[in-house]
Amino acid sequence: MRLRLKWKFTWFLAGLLLFTVAVLSSLVLQGVRSYQREQMENTMDGLARTAQVRITQQYVTGTPIPSQTFMKIEGQKLAIELSATSHHRVILYDMGGTAVGDSLPMAARPDVQSPLTYALQNKIAYVIVGDTLQYLSPLSGPDGQIGVIHFESSLKDQHSFDRELVLLFLYVGLAVLGFGLLFGLLYMNRHASAISQLKRAAEHIQMGRYLEAPPLTRLDELGDLSHGIYDMSKAIQANIHTQKQFFDNVSHEFKTPLTAIKANADLLQMYGDDPAMTHQAGTAIAGEASRLHALVEKALQLSAMGTYAFEHRPEQVPLHEMLEELCLRLLGKAEKSGITIHRELAPATIWADPNSLRHIFLNLIDNAIKYNTQGGSVTVCTHAMHQQVDVLIQDTGVGISEEERKRIFDPFYTIHPDRARQTGGTGLGLSLVKQFVEREHGKIRVENGPNGQGTTFIVTFEALRLQV
Which of 21, 37, 135, 141 is the most buried (most CB within 10 A)? Predict the structure, then answer.
């Protein structure tokens, strides 16, 4: 049977309290009984001393006679007198162990042979039988011991007190056990509830529902564990987001060369008898295939290393040359769609990662072709001024409304869902483009084209100062 944690702690706490009460009760009872014994011995010793003084006085002031004769003559009278003053039964014995006086001569005489023998050796002896104390003390005269005095005392009140004290501790123990269970359950229920919250939080993480805040706010170990689970949730979420972003980037990196390969393959089918076109298309396909192979190798390498991000290696990039190369790579796709690509590329050099720049401008030029009108055009321009470089990519498509321009860089947002499905768009391209631009410390914005026709994307980077 599975026992819940709160019950384990509750029973442990109650058991610990009960054990503590039992130990304390035992120690207190031992202390009380030790104190009672000490008080009883002191009381009986005081009575024996008083009796000794009275018997010595009677013996000294009377007619000089042998001690044993004195005990036989005066024993009964002295026993009655001493009983009246001590409020205890008194029995006097001579040195032969014979009772010579008894304050209660009609009552049954207790068997005290063993302690009497001990007391006749001038030693104090007592024995407790049931609720009765038999206390025997030696009596001394001028010439030595003359006999033994025996006090019989009732211990009923003392034993009744002991029993009441035991019952009191028993009731206290049961009360402590009950309250320990109650308050232990209430107290441990709070901790068990906190542990259950942490368990549910772990189950949510297991199901992919990540935490937005620590499940508990406490200043103890459970609070530390709560923050640890929250940090773990954030780390897992960030790792999964990084992986997803990596796969999105890889898919887009694959998509562009595959699109170029397909477009050039279509050109080969359409103009297979044109040697110049065949050479151009074949060269483009070979270049894109090599780039695609390099991407696959890099992706496999990063996956094996557990790293989900392409290396960022900035260097000096002649931006006008790269844009010229990219326009030529997409020329086949543009011609297939009846789109003309115009290039106005002023010399400009920036410091950036070439792969990131290729991703940015391939996506922007590809979109300009994809969402253009039949027979339209794409214009790619560079302007270097005021220590910055602006790259303009204009198309003659249907344009983008102001409301749509506010959301165009949101992940998975597509302006024309039907056309996106036809062209294979996912709505991630521009979102990734913006991320790459910002990683290169650049800015991107979108505006309407000239005379309100089409769309213009403007990407701005800091120009590189070349030292001569």
Answer: 135
